[in-house]
Amino acid sequence: MAKVKQYSGKKSLLSRIFKDNPKYDVQNKELFWYGLGVAGQNHTYNLVAGWFEYFCNFVLFIKPMHTGIVLGIMRGWDAVNDPLAGAIIDGRTPKSGDKLKPYLKIFAIPIGIMACLMFVNWGFSSYVAKIAYVASIYFLWDTFYSFQDTAQWGMVARISNMPERREKAAYVGRIGGMFGGLIPGLITTVVGLVLDGILPITLTQLFIMLGIVFGLGGMLLTLVFTNIKERVPNLTPEKKMLGGFRLLKHNKIVLLIAFGSVLNVCMLNISQINFFQTMVRVEIGGKVLNGATILLPFTILSGLPGFFSIFFTPYFSKKFGGMKNLLVISSLANIVCRVIMFFVGYEGWRLIVVCAMHALINFPSNMCGIATTALWSDSVDYTEWKTGQRNEGTVFAMQNFLAKMTGSISSFFSGLTLTLLKFEPEKFVENPNAPLSVEFTKWAWPLYSLAPALGSVMQIIPLLILKFTPADRARIHEELEMRREAKKRDKLLVVGDYTYGESNKFLDAEINVYDYDDVVERDRELSRMLDEDYVMVLPQDDEKENKEE
After folding, report:
1. Consecutive H or E run containing 535
2. CA distance 86 to 244
3. Is the pTM of this model over 0.90?
4. Where are the strands (E) in 281-349, listed by range?
């Protein structure tokens, strides 16, 4: 007689993960769609950010100094473009209630098309025409991208009213971005195979294919953003277009993190791909391989600790006292490991030590993306707490501006470094094994190993100045919830005239009762009347008792 297998009643892991939880306003299924969309966008971004400079130097044969200047200027366009995008987003009062989603829908396909065109070698005979094409196509792509990217990361601040769920959104989004960068990571190996003649195609043909697969394909995947919702109230800044910028002066979180990031990249540098393809040679089975060929396994081995550490970011955040402290720990790890790496060297078996040091660096470094985005989201609440207004567009435009501006500065210094070291890309492509200049051979390793350590020393200073703890975040959230609830009521109880100091206590508090009718547009007027005053609900019964007293 056949046995009947009884249903155990246990649900699968995926069923438990995606099960709705009534305690949360945003469910895990929606966060999954958000992470998938970020993964698609990162396909495109990693192609452009990681390989457009290389394409200009080694396919179009634009001189490194000229490439650095052109890309530095065009990426510097973000100095206007990103804040402008944020100001437009913040200044618009959406009728549908969706502040950010329209930009995710409109710009996806145009960005993908622009990314394809960026990696086409049209065979211009004029050197000036090459530079003009690079500048114009990057200008168009970057303009469209700023709106989409600002809206994408701004969703972290709007997807939930609960700080812990917004932190989870930042976590899922950054994991999506990490997975979105894994496949483009294979490009390094493919380039190495082309340079070694193992893959029978040219670099020109390779980059056309990459533009279609990662440029257009990645942005098509971002259309899944249509499955997510915005839940935070729209509190449009005063003076709309300029209001978002004015609010930044109240946002110490953004200002200090941004300042540290800029300091980090203001120095000569050599990128990893440039160092490996020029200085590293590995003999396997009697065949000497270019360093670019072995960069993928090197990256995988050194990146594994960081790959797994990202899943434990919330745990380490609690363990070490908040997301800000993770940024500090990452800078310290980078300083120590790179100094060790420099003294050990990179030739022969020492390359294994270099790999190990990169692994130790990547363990805390890979958590920084989540930490920064979570802090950016918290900073919007911080601004609302200080002013009664929100500026998600401007704040997350600053995040995008910061990433591109530091990339612009880094590209300039990279081009300057190669020029000072007398590196000639055309001669290298013709013969990758040809002797390098004396200057390049002497300074390549010190710059590759120690320059980022010096950058971390500079970056850590503003981070140590920033005072923002998990306790601060919890208190701000609680007060904002009471303010939002109070907006729906007829009366407000205002505790005013306090000073918020390092002791994290409210000092010199006075209790005053205000009729709601006396306050016009509470979010603006009340904040102007009372500056940073504490607002909470006054129940009807308590209100009468207070009036009698």
Report:
1. strand 534-537
2. 8
3. no
4. 281-284, 287-290
